[in-house]
Every structure is written in structure tokens, then in C-alpha cells.
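Quick illustration, no need to memorize.
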Amino acid sequence: MLMASAVVVWEWLNEHGRWRPYSPAVSHHIEAVIRANPRGGSVVLGQADGKLAPYLIDLQSMQQFRQDTGTLRPVRRSFYDPTSAPGQGVVWEWENDSGSWTPYDMEIGIPIQAARDRQQPWLDLTPIGFCYIIDFTSMSQVNRQTQRRRRIQRRLDVAYPLVSGTLPKSQSWPAAGTGTAGGASSSANVTPTTPQPPCNCQQCLLVMSVKAAATAASTLSPQGRKGKQSPSLGARNGSPRSSSLAAAAGGTRGSASASAPVLSSAGPLSPRAVKAPAASTGTLSRAGLATLSRPALQRIAMAQSRALIASGVPTVPVKNLNGSSPVHPALAGITGILMSAAGLPVCLTRPPKLVLHPPSVSKSDMKPVPGIGTSCRKTSKKQARQGKTPEEVVKKYLQKVRNPPEEDCTICMEKLASPSGYKNAPGQPLVKPDLVGKLTKCGHVYHLHCLVAMYNNGNKDGSLQCPTCKTIYGVKTGTQPPGKMEYHAIPHSLPGHPDCRTIRVIYNIPPGIQGPEHTNPGKPFTARGFPRHCYLPDNEKGRKVLKMLLVAWDRRLIFTVGVSSTTGESDTVIWNEVHHKTEFGSNLTGHGFPDPNYLDNVLAELSAQGITEESIRE
């Protein structure tokens, strides 16, 4: 157990295995949602921070879910000393390459603040695994190997939410007990009390029954000898890790008895089929059962599984409880305990791993893609178009309308029979505000003045896109920075495409300076995550997609410079509405295979950018 009072920091796990803290405002919002609904549910992060609008947190699975991509990331609820940096509202940040500030992880920010409070001149981060020195005199971070310095700053923010009561060292939702430690935290002082009985839902009944079985099993002596009794599974002596390991060992060595709960191998789990241990094993209080958390149950079950595998006992994989969706790890752990207690060997299926790249491929194994002569394509800076004025470009795609219909112009929302609501841009030829035209392909009608204003607001590349139906007139180009696109076939198959090789596409864009076509001309932009590896099946449709991607690359439509929806960083290279598959051997993030609809979907996305089979022939 932790201190009687602590600050709560909610964190998410990034792709590098680092726990990144949410802001104090977001943590306060999550705690408020938990207080309002202690039984769990979901938290809409955009209500606290507009930049997090696509994200939800599912409190049952402790996962962050991104609604537009389906990406899942684990989250956790961590407790820290109220006198530490998060309790004081202190945020330590370092200056990144783009000149903006990035907050340190809690495991770094807290020691930095503690060292400052002790008035140390510097802090060596090597003991916690980072090759940096924090120099408080110059307020800089120094790389011990390269001696490169980055500026750091100490910023005051709102303090993270404070909770009081009996607090566990680790948090899993829903927690074993109720009250402050169980997740429905409150900033008011709470006197620890005996946990109340859980609800009567199937999951809670199952959890409590399993805890009773596991606690009872730990009191049994190893079979065939009368030795020292194994420690109780409910004990929490020392750190949670050591007590959990001790509990796992006790649960593994303990043999099943006739009074152990029985798990039927047919049909779904039913809490009514799980009986509490016989009275001979001792009476167990609900307070004792509530001390066993879900992570402990998982560790116990995995320890049992490893012991069985090591001994060569045939095992039964536990993959699914209802036959339709993946098993939650905690439920898999519970199932393993029940099956082991009944004398059934158990092997908990490990969660799938993220496989971003194929096995290593030699240069001799990289072959040209059939039907495509080259293996590399480069783009340079955009060349300014000379000649036609915006009015001349727009008129090329219009038919003049002498008698405008009684409708609104959907750009300026004024009547078509009335003058346009837009004014002439400075330096542009005068356009009469009452001229009305009809786009030749789609037939939608607008003020000529409005279309010219829309064109001046865009890329000014000689193309026009109908704001109503998105029909493209001319050749649409984008604002992708200069870079290189490589592509070749490799002798490995993608999941779902076992009968063909794989096309690997590698994009590489260096950081640089934004041009006149970008949002902030003259300002530097960053390029994170390059080179980016993407994959297509080497079949007829996959090669067709590659040819169209080459056209999109030449037209500078695959990337753009903007704000990253993942990190919130501005002035950085981001994807531009054409989805790519960046996972080779898995589909954990939604950006991998198998995905039977992907090729059709990406062809539709390319078509929306004006790239069709005719574009390939051209």
C-alpha cells in the first residue's frame, strides 16, 4: 500500500515503450468521470483537450482508443507523492528540434524536481537509464556521449488530482475493492473501510470466486510433504512484485484438492458453477479476497503456465471465452487459475506481437516489381506556375450562366442572383461580383468571384475542386516536401496473401524549410519516423496500387506539412489522406494485414485525389 494521500497521474504507452503523462487537465477530467461513474465506462479526452478529440479511454480494458484509425494503446493510473513535481504542478520540459517544448516522462521529471529542491547544481540521469546530465545552472540537458546541449525549462501548471485513503501501488480497472483505492477517487479525505460486497454481475462474481479459490490454494502444503506453509496469495509484504512472485510460486506448487472449484470444459464460464472452497480450508473474509488484484491473477496464471510448459505437460491453450472476440488478459488469467485448480493443464496464449518489418532481406533478394521499370522516384521543390491568372484558370472549367437559379451559392451563402460576398484579392484583376458560372463536369453553380477566392486560398496549381461534390478539374497537386520513394519486391508473403511476394515501399523525406505553398513559409518543418516502410501484396491489384501511388508521389499528394494528429506537433510531415500499411506481419494498430478491403479502399482514396487508371496511362 502507498501513502494515505497521493497525486494521480494518468499515462499512456507510446510506440517506444515509454509511459507518457496526460496533462493535469486531462487527468482531472478522467478522475471526474470515474467519480461520476465508479463502475467504469469510457472517457472522451476531447472534452478536456481539443487536440485529443479523436481519443477515448475505455476504463474496463484500460486502453486508449483512437476513433478514426482504431489504434489501441495501454493506459495506466499512477500514484505519486503529493510533494513531488506532479503534486506541485511543476512540469519539466526539453526543447525539441522544431523549437517547441516536450514534457519529460514522470520517472525523469520527478527526480529533476527533487534534485532542484535539494539545490543540486546538476543531476546525472544515467542511474535511471538515460545518458544525460541536467545542468541547473545553464538550464540545459547535456548528452554525455555527444556533449550536445538542449535547453530545458521548468513550467508551472495545475497540480495533478489529489486522492486520499488506502492506495494500491498499481492500478487495474476495475480494482478489487471499492472506494478511493478502487478507482473512484476523490479529492476529499477518505477513511479506509472494509470493502463492500461487489455487484452481482457475472464478471464480479467470477473475480470474487477465483480470488477465494486462489487464496485457499495458497494455504495448501505441497503434495506429499508437510513443510512450511506457502505464503498467502492475499499478502502484500514488501513490494507488489515480490509478493506477487511469492504468490505465484505458492499457487503453482499447491496441488488441486477435491474441494477445488471446477471449470467445465464445455460452454462459457458460469459463476454459478464455481463453488467456494470447503470449510476445511478456512474461512475467508471479503476484505482478504479483495487484496488480490487482476495483475496478480495474471502473474499467477502465467507462472503456472510456464511451470507446466517447462515440465513437458501437454497444455490446453486458453484463447477465447465466447468464441467471437479476443480474451481480455485478466479473464484469461482467471480462466487459467480455475483450470489449474481443477487439475487441467493450462497454457495462456501470449498476446500477439507487433511485427513492423519482414525478416532481413539481402540486396540480391530485392527484385524489381514486374511491369515497373525503375525502383526509385524523387521529387524536388515545387516550381512556380507562370502564365494564367486565377480568373483565367477558373473560367476554363466554367460555363457562363445568364439567368442564375433561385439558389444560394454554397461558398458565400448569398443568393446566386445577388453579388458575391467575397471581394477581389489585392493585385488581382477585377472580377464582377455578379458573374455566375456552372462547372462543366458536375454542373454545380457558383459565383465566379467565389471560385476565384477559393482558388487563391488553395494550392494555385491550375486545378480546381468542386466544393460540393469534390469533382477535380485539371491535375491536382499537393504540398509534399522533396524526398525519395523506393520500391521493390521481397521474397516474403503478407498475412492474407500467402500466394505472392510482397512489394515494399520506402519513403524518405528529410526536414527542411517550408515553401510558399505551405502554411508557414520560411519556417522549418520536421520529418519524424522516416524512412517509413509500407507494404503491398505483389499481385495484379497490388501492382496497380503501386503505379497509382507513383503518380500520387509525382503530384506531391502522399505527404503534406501540418499538425500531427498522433503527437500534436505542428509544422511536421504528415500523411495526406492516402492510407498505407506500415505493419508487415501483424494488424494490431489497424495498419497491417490481413485486410481484405484495403486495396479497394486505397484505390478509392487515390481516385478522390484525381488519380485513376487513366492517370497511369498518361
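The first helix runs from residue 24 to 36.
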